[in-house]
Each structure stands twice: as C-alpha cells, then as structure tokens.
C-alpha cells in the first residue's frame, strides 16, 4: 500500500496560517483569471485589432500606441492613479494619494468585505483603466504625434479617468445611487466622448487616408475582435469580485447581447447596402459588448437580448446615417468611430440598466444596507411589491441621466485641457510629410516586408516603379 505524502508548509507557517481565514481561493483564482482575460483584450487583442483595422502604412504605429498605453497606465496606476480612483481617504472628486498603497502590507490586506486580497483588485482595475485609454486612442489613429500620445496618456488617466471611477464606483456623489455594473459609463461613455474630443483637437488624417482607409488584414482584425469578445467574460464576470451566481449570469448575458447585436448590425448592412460587411459585424459585436456592460449581472437574459437589438440598431443608425448628415460630426475625424461604438452604446446600456435592472439581482450585487440602486423603471411599474414604487424607478432613471451628463461633460472639459496643455509642449499632430509616408517615417519600421527579408529598396527604385506605373 502506498503512503500519502503531505508536502511541508513553508518554514515558519502553521497550518492555519498558510492563508488568511478571509481568503476564498475560488474567488481569488477567478479574479486573477478575469483580470488576465481583460488584459488579453488589450494585449494582444486591441494591439492586433488596431494594427490590422487601419491602412497598411499605419499598422505599426496603431498597434504601438495600444502597447505603449498598456505599459504606461500600469506604472501610473500602481504608483498613484489607483489611490486617486479608490483611495481610502476622499479628496473632493477623487481619492487621496497614499504611497503606502504600493507596499506588500497594503496589497495583501483583504479587499473590504470581499474574500480576495487588495492586490487582485488593484490589478483588475488596472486592466480596466488601460483598456479605456486604448479604446480612446482608436479615435486618434493615423495622425497623432506619438510623443504627444506618450504625454497625453498619463495626464488623461490622472485627471479624467480617476474622477469617473471615484465618482461612480467608489465614494463619489453618484456611487450610492447609479447603476454601472462594469463600466458602461466609467469606461465606454468616457472613452467615446474623450476620444471624439481629442480627435477634434488633434485634427483630421491626411486627406488620402480619410478618403481611402481599408483594413490591411481582415483575418487578423477578426482575431483581435475574438480576443475582445471572449475576454469580455472577465470584463463583466469579474465585477462581482467573487465566483458566484451573479458572475455566471453576467457572463451569459454578455454573450447573448453581443451575438444579438452583431446579427442585427449585419441585417441592417444587408438591407441597406446589399452585403454584410466584416468590419460592420465587428462594429456590431463591439456595440453589443459595450451596451450590456453596465447591466450584465442585474438583468434577465431576455432583457440582455433586447439590449442587443438596441445595440445593433441605434449605434448603426448614428454611425451610418446621422454621422453623414450632421456637419460637425463629419468635420471631426474619429478614425474607428469610437463615439458611436462606445459613447452611444455605453449611454444606451446605462439607460437600459435604469429600465431593466431587476430588484432582487440589484440587491444581490449591491449592498442594500449602504447603496440605494434600483429598481429598474420597468419593474417599478409592473411590480406589485409594496416596497417598490413607481417613483423609485423614475428616480433611478434620473440618476442614470445625471451620471451620463457628468461623465460626458467632465471628459469634454478635461480632455480639451489636456490636449491644449500637450500642444504647448509638442505638436499634437504629425507633420504633413510624415502623414503621407506613415510608419516608416514615424518609427523607421514597416508592418510587412514586401521585398526580400525585410530590406527596403533605395528611393530611386521606388521612383522608377512609380514612373512605370
């Protein structure tokens, strides 16, 4: 008979000290997994998506903007931005920085009433902050000076994103009232409005790029979109900070809404343009993911699918119809249409959360002894429960509207100020000659080697080829 061998504990630890009593290893494992999934949405997800969704000459620059932002946000987040967003001591509309928050003593403490360490929460919120900045960058591809982008990222994170996170998710004036399950306002409305605002200040792409800007690799674009879609399981599934029933519902609702939205977008493309576009399908996928985000774990699955119908139709209309009719929208060069895929879809999701939030699910997710979210307007009208009144539903919708107005206004003002400040240091936009050349002028590198093993022919040969053509 074989003997069971028990591995010894690390030196100095007694059996009950191997892990603290408050730590739930299942919750901890899921939270780390969810954070990793969200991180994969940015690196490699958005790196691949941006690098392949733009014109070939901008593939390197677009992918590199995403990669740089991910690294820069991590350093800023751990050093000061997390405390500004979720600091223990309030300081007006943001938290107070605390240098002790980067020490092991702090990071290994319990995250309030959750059964995970603070280090889990810091990393999970970092990948949220990083993807917000990268999504914003989608409005600026193909012309923003890379050095301006390097300065813009930490400034915008510090003065814009942290305020939205603190106001809605931590101790701000909306935190006990507004419903934003996983960032429809904090992340998507914020990135959409800020991206469009920054695009206004940076200015448009080269005229040839704006008139003709085909994706350089459709298959890679779909691969990047796939990382986004599947990574959203962690995006919404990680918000409860536990592996519980709300987590499961949030993941299922996320995929239901996304699939519905993509199919609806494809149907509209087929009806009005006589063909279904792959780029359009990716846009519809994105609007579905964004729309369900503020409500993923607190609505029924039928409501998630209905939100998918709204997500696949309303942003389609604003992008494909309104954008071409309104002069101001046409003048601002929003490269990937982030205003529509994130700001419009995020606003739509936030308002839908105020309508479809189910009272018992809201109580499960929010601590009803502290927070006062819900019920959704629909349930306040049809519910016969004496504790639920119609005016409560209208009050909740009021908070959803006020929250959207605050996030939009704050991002317009702060993003404008950041852009103006950066413009005093370096040019926001690349020089016209660089805009015509692209990656080779900006980074000295090109995405694809068309001749030989990466070497480039002398300029004289290029001129001969051009002459023959």
TrEMBL record:
<feature type="transmembrane region" description="Helical">
    <location>
        <begin position="302"/>
        <end position="323"/>
    </location>
</feature>
<keyword id="KW-0812">Transmembrane</keyword>
<keyword id="KW-1133">Transmembrane helix</keyword>
<feature type="domain" description="Ammonium transporter AmtB-like">
    <location>
        <begin position="29"/>
        <end position="448"/>
    </location>
</feature>
<feature type="transmembrane region" description="Helical">
    <location>
        <begin position="401"/>
        <end position="422"/>
    </location>
</feature>
<dbReference type="InterPro" id="IPR029020">
    <property type="entry name" value="Ammonium/urea_transptr"/>
</dbReference>
<keyword id="KW-0813">Transport</keyword>
<feature type="transmembrane region" description="Helical">
    <location>
        <begin position="215"/>
        <end position="234"/>
    </location>
</feature>
<dbReference type="GO" id="GO:0005886">
    <property type="term" value="C:plasma membrane"/>
</dbReference>
<protein>
    <recommendedName>
        <fullName>Ammonium transporter</fullName>
    </recommendedName>
</protein>
<dbReference type="Pfam" id="PF00909">
    <property type="entry name" value="Ammonium_transp"/>
</dbReference>
<comment type="similarity">
    <text>Belongs to the ammonia transporter channel (TC 1.A.11.2) family.</text>
</comment>
<feature type="transmembrane region" description="Helical">
    <location>
        <begin position="121"/>
        <end position="141"/>
    </location>
</feature>
<feature type="transmembrane region" description="Helical">
    <location>
        <begin position="148"/>
        <end position="169"/>
    </location>
</feature>
<dbReference type="InterPro" id="IPR002229">
    <property type="entry name" value="RhesusRHD"/>
</dbReference>
<dbReference type="GO" id="GO:0008519">
    <property type="term" value="F:ammonium channel activity"/>
</dbReference>
<keyword id="KW-0472">Membrane</keyword>
<feature type="transmembrane region" description="Helical">
    <location>
        <begin position="278"/>
        <end position="296"/>
    </location>
</feature>
<dbReference type="GO" id="GO:0072488">
    <property type="term" value="P:ammonium transmembrane transport"/>
</dbReference>
<dbReference type="InterPro" id="IPR024041">
    <property type="entry name" value="NH4_transpt_AmtB-like_dom"/>
</dbReference>
<feature type="transmembrane region" description="Helical">
    <location>
        <begin position="335"/>
        <end position="357"/>
    </location>
</feature>
<feature type="transmembrane region" description="Helical">
    <location>
        <begin position="181"/>
        <end position="203"/>
    </location>
</feature>
<keyword id="KW-0924">Ammonia transport</keyword>
<dbReference type="InterPro" id="IPR018047">
    <property type="entry name" value="Ammonium_transpt_CS"/>
</dbReference>
<feature type="transmembrane region" description="Helical">
    <location>
        <begin position="58"/>
        <end position="80"/>
    </location>
</feature>
<dbReference type="InterPro" id="IPR001905">
    <property type="entry name" value="Ammonium_transpt"/>
</dbReference>
<feature type="transmembrane region" description="Helical">
    <location>
        <begin position="29"/>
        <end position="51"/>
    </location>
</feature>
<feature type="transmembrane region" description="Helical">
    <location>
        <begin position="246"/>
        <end position="266"/>
    </location>
</feature>
């Amino acid at each position: 008979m074989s003997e069971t061998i028990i591995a010894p504990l690390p030196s100095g630890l007694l059996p009950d000290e191997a892990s603290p009593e408050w730590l739930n290893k299942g919750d901890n494992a899921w939270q780390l997994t969810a954070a990793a999934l969200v991180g994969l949405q940015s690196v490699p997800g958005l790196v691949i998506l941006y690098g392949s969704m733009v014109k070939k000459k901008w593939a390197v620059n677009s992918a590199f903007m995403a990669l740089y932002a991910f690294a820069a946000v991590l350093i800023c987040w751990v050093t000061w931005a997390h405390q500004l967003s979720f600091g223990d001591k309030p300081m007006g509309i943001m938290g107070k920085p605390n240098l002790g928050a980067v020490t092991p003593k702090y990071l290994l403490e319990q995250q309030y009433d959750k059964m995970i360490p603070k280090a889990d929460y810091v990393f999970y919120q970092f990948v949220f902050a990083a993807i917000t900045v990268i999504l914003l960058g989608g409005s600026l591809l193909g012309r923003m000076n890379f050095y301006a982008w390097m300065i813009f990222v930490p400034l915008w994170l510090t003065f814009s994103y942290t305020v939205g996170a603190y106001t809605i998710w931590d101790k701000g004036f909306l935190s006990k009232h507004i419903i934003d399950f996983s960032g429809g306002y904090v992340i998507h409305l914020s990135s959409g409005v800020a991206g469009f605002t920054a695009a206004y200040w940076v200015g448009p792409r080269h005229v040839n790029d704006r008139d003709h800007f085909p994706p350089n690799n459709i298959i890679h674009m779909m691969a990047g979109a796939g990382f986004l879609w599947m990574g959203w399981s962690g995006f919404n599934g990680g918000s409860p900070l536990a592996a519980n029933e709300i987590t499961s519902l949030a993941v299922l609702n996320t995929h239901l809404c996304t699939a519905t939205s993509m199919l609806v977008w494809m149907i509209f493309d087929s009806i009005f343009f006589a063909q279904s576009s792959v780029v359009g399908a990716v846009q519809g996928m994105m609007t579905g993911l964004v729309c369900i985000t503020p409500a993923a774990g607190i609505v029924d699955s039928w409501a998630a699918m209905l939100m998918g119908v709204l997500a696949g139709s309303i942003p389609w209309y604003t992008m494909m119809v309104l954008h071409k009719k309104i002069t101001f929208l046409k003048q601002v060069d929003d490269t990937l249409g982030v205003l529509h895929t994130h700001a419009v879809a995020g606003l739509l999701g936030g308002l839908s959360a105020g309508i479809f939030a189910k009272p018992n699910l809201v109580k499960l997710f929010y601590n009803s002894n502290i927070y006062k979210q819900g019920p959704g307007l629909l349930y306040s009208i049809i519910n016969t429960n004496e504790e639920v009144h119609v005016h409560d539903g209208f009050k909740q919708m009021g908070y959803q509207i006020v929250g959207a107005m605050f996030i939009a206004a704050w991002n317009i003002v702060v993003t404008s100020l950041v852009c103006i400040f950066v413009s005093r240091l370096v040019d926001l936009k690349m020089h016209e000659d660089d805009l015509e050349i692209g990656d080779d002028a900006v980074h000295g590198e090109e995405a694809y080697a068309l001749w030989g093993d990466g070497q480039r022919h002398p300029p004289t040969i290029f001129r001969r080829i051009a002459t023959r053509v």
